[in-house]
Amino acid sequence: MHNIPSVNLLDFLSGDEARRRKFVNDLGKAYEDIGFVALSGHFIDDALVEQLYEQVKNFFSLPQKVKDKYEISGIGGQRGYTSFGKEKAKGHSAGDLKEFWHFGQYLAEDSRYKGHPHYHDNVIVEELPDFNQSASKRI
Asked: Contact, 55 vs 130, CB < 8 A?
C-alpha cells in the first residue's frame, strides 16, 4: 500500500446517487483493505485541522513514561492513550503496529450520559494544555 485511500464527503452529500454510491463503496473498501481512510470535504476549518495535527505531534513526541500515564486500563482504549502493539485486530494475536489517542464527545454538564459507567470522560493531558482544548472546539 503506497497511498492512503481518500474519500470526499461532498460526494456523499451531493444528491447525485452515482457519486453517493461510489463514496460508500470506496469508504467500505478502504476499511476492508487497511482499516482507515482520509476524508476531505468535511467542513472542519483548515486552521483547526493544523492546530490538531500540531497538538497530536506534540503528544506523541512526549517521552514514553509520560504517555503511559494516560493509558487507562479497563476501558478498552475508549479514551486516552493506547500504547504501541496493545490493540489487536479481531481474530488476530499480533498487536497492531500503532499507538493512538482516543477522544470522545465532550458532553454538556446536564447530559443524561454524564457519569454513565459506559461513557467515559476524556482524559486531560496535563503537560499540553492546548491538546484537549484543540479537540474540544466546535466546528
From this structure: yes
Q: What is the pLDDT along the chain (139 residues), one digit of tens a residue?
A: 568 899 999 999 999 999 999 999 999 999 998 888 999 998 888 898 899 899 999 999 999 999 999 998 888 778 999 899 787 777 888 877 889 999 888 888 898 888 888 888 889 999 998 998 887 765 4
Number of C-alpha atoms within 13 angstroms, CB side, residue 127?
14
Q: Where are the domains of the chain?
A: 1-43, 45-139
Kind plus residue range of the DSSP H or E element containing 28: helix 17-33
